[in-house]
Amino acid sequence: MENSKNNIIGLTLGIKFNRSFRIPDISGDIIDDLLYSDKTPFGVKYFPQIQENSKREKTLFNPETSEYLRINTDDLILGIEINNNYKERFNWIREDVLSYFKDDLFRIHKIKNIYRLGIVFSHKLGKNTKLTKAVNSFTENEVSGADNINVSFSKKAATKEALYRKGVNDYKNQIYNFQELTDSVTADLDYQYYYEPVVEDLRECFTSEILKDADNFLEDNFYKWLNKYE
User: Which of 21, 60, 109, 157 could form a disulfide with 172 if both were Cys (CB 3.0 to 4.6 A apart)?
Assistant: First the structure.
């Protein structure tokens, strides 16, 4: 399945926590930590620019790479590019980035009550007629030659799947998104783990194990049928 991973063009890591209105008030300290801490895996060269919107959400970004890190009252989202270096970049997120988030950023700034951890694998595929044929079939050929097709669906994992905490209502969810472009198709797998009830400390969220499961699901499930598309 390594050849399939050559189609990955981006990874997006998302950590969602219960809404905290103190985050905008301390966002300056959080940004300083991300840019200047001796333990940060980022720094001012990685994210040379900062933006703030009307909702006081702050975004660090690199205009040359389109990579970004966004934090607001509800979540922290990191988006990075992949250029035929998936394994290296995935391991960097799983080991370096998440270790820094767990042991430093979230702990020092008391970002608590984690609700969801997720990672999106974004692919760029060659264009063919399968999406168009799906529209033809669904509309019984009343709509032919459709373009700008967008397809999205999700599947909650079976309750019998092994989870990391006992006696709780945790669950996994996978979201599939396909978008037709002029000469290609983007295919995204959004692999999510929900904590019910929430987990106060990110260090107790089994982040490394969940990302490993996501990578295994990508290979063993997603590519099993996605490769037939190509």
Answer: 157
Domain range list for the chain:
2-229
CB-based burial label for 25 (10 Å; 0-12, 13-18, 19+): exposed
Owner of token pair 């032919």: 144
CB 60 within 8 A of CB 79: no
Note the helical H segments in 83-230.
Answer: 86-91, 98-100, 106-108, 130-138, 207-217, 223-229
List, in sequence order, the alpha helices (H) in 92-222: 98-100, 106-108, 130-138, 207-217
Q: What is the pLDDT of residue 159?
A: 58
pLDDT given at position 7? 95
Q: Which of 35, 32, 59 is nearest to 46 (CA)?
A: 35
pLDDT for residue 181: 85
The residue assigned the tokens 């905290």 is 20
Q: Name the helix (H) or strand (E) containing 29.
A: helix 23-36
| pLDDT higher than threshold 70 for residue 230 | no
Spatial distance between the Cα atoms of 76 and 30, rounded to a whole number of angstroms:
11
Spatial separation of the C-alpha atoms in residues 27 and 66, rounded to whole Å: 21
Strand ranges (E), 26-170: 49-52, 58-61, 68-71, 75-81, 114-126, 150-156
Q: Are 111 and 23 contacting, i.e. CB atoms less than 8 angstroms apart?
A: yes
Q: What is the pTM of this model?
A: 0.93
Looking from the CA of 93 toward its CB, the CA atoms found within 13 Å total 30
